[in-house]
Amino acid sequence: MNKTIIININSIVFHIEEDAYETLRGYMIDIKRHFSQSADSGEILLDIENRIAEMFSERIQSGRKEVINKDDVSEVIAQMGRVSDFEEASEEEEIGQQSFHQQQTSSGEEHKPFQTGKKLMRDPEDTTIGGVCSGLGHYFGVQPKWMRAFFILFVLIGGSGVLLYIVLWAVMPVASTRADRMAMRGEAPNLQNFKKNFEEEMEGIRENFSGANAQFSRGLRSIGTGFGEIFKFIGKALAACMLVFTGATIFGLFFFFVACTLAIMGYQEEIYFPPLEVLEAGQAFFALLAGTFAIALPFIALFYIFLRILFKIRPMNNYLSMGMWATWIVSIIVVIFYCVIGAQDFREDSIIKVDRPLKVQPVYSFSEKDVRVIEASSSADGKTRYNIQVDGESLHNLLRSDIEIRFESLDSLEKPFIQYHYKAKGKSYQLAAERASKINYQAEQVDSKVIFNSHFALGADDLYRGQSVNVVAYLPVGTKVGIDRSLEGKIREIAYHNCYDNYPEELKIKQTEWIMTKSGLICAIPEKVEVEKKEEEDATTSE
């Protein structure tokens, strides 16, 4: 059983085993001894300690451990490098180059240096306004001046470059530490690169603070700082607006999911998502769940990003982030799976035509009966009842209103009839024809009245597969027809509303009058209406 010690690195507390502590202590003593001759050794040591603290934190989070052991310290030292590794580098450089060329000549293999990933960050050391262009230049391996020219071009084209710059300013973190700047350039954060980076920075500082160049550089930086504060404020304002938008979207998706779930379960019918009608209840729920995750997870990720921008919170846990990625990918796969399942039942279609005669009448009155209205019996409490079940299925899911009605002319000696076109789809023509044959819809004639139901019913076990009904009423030429306003939404190929508007306000009724001609129905305005209109025209002319 090893003894543990509590240490503090960069204001972060770590529990470390005693033998691991001794190894780390000896390593830090060597580093301090080596950099003790530098004028700014404190800054270098602070950057090295910060990097070691980050690596320890990553190992604790990834390994789900609480105590740093000797193996952890050894791996961190191996990644950072020892002082002895680069103290002898200058002596071995020529020998290494010679052996490298010899190996290249003999084997013909090309040496590929170790490549490190770059981080997209703003460069505060090479900045005109906010360091965005220089950071992009480091990330894509181009000179910052070309990135600046790119943004200027976008500004001249349409001003979109300004908005893009502000968004990148808000999203990209600033490379405030030496370790950040090394990660920005893709340099490995080890001792040798820390020393090299520090020496390059000191050389750049000596060059910048000389003569007129120093004054110009300081003036340009002060202007950039001023613009930077302005853009920072604008960026945070945009982030706040986007935070509200993404939050409202997430809440709306949650409300939509709950409402559709209740509709699938049959508890309410006011809100329903039509694509779910093609699936069974169980399939519809999983498709709805997967679709909600597929849309909501990107918004949740954006919401967290904007929270980080505004409130400087810590990055998302790696396990949570990977879990969200996996859930999002699985959700998309599930949505595609159910889309394929639903689409297979819509490949073939079938139409069944049935003719039914009409009793001969000089005048026909066509109207609609709303089959959804259920009258309460005398023993009932008089309250309207929703969610009526038929064989365990919601009545709302069984009724369809895909009905179209047309009128065609016949010879005056022919007998009137109604032709019904029952349509449905399926995986095969046989299945589509079977579904079409199950549609039960026809008009009811009572003397001169022809009454159409507002909906037709599907079977309790049937799902929506494009079922619809087209009705064609064939009437002899000269037949007078009255059409109730309840059919206005189902009538096709005649201008019902225009005929209705021909009536004066005081004479407007629910039913309009028509006459069948060889070219079809035409509006027939009553004689008394024509007389009144003629009298009004005569009165206007006399005045």
TrEMBL record:
It comes from Sphingobacterium olei. It comes from the Bacteria. Residues 214-345 form the PspC-related transmembrane region domain. The keyword Protein transport does not apply. Keywords: Cell membrane, Membrane, Transmembrane, Transmembrane helix. It is a single-pass membrane protein. The keyword Cell membrane applies. This is PspC domain-containing protein. Residues 91-123 are annotated as: Disordered. InterPro entries: Phageshock_PspC_N, PspC, PspC-rel_TM, PspC-rel_ToastRack. The chain crosses the membrane at residues 149-175, 237-264, 284-307, 319-343. It is found in: Cell membrane. Residues 96-107 have a biased composition (Polar residues). Residues 397-524 form the PspC-related ToastRack domain. It holds the Pfam family Toast-rack_PspC-Cterm. Residues 118-174 form the Phage shock protein PspC N-terminal domain. GO terms for cellular component: plasma membrane. PANTHER family: PHAGE SHOCK PROTEIN C. The lineage of its organism: Bacteria, Pseudomonadati, Bacteroidota, Sphingobacteriia, Sphingobacteriales. Its main location: membrane.
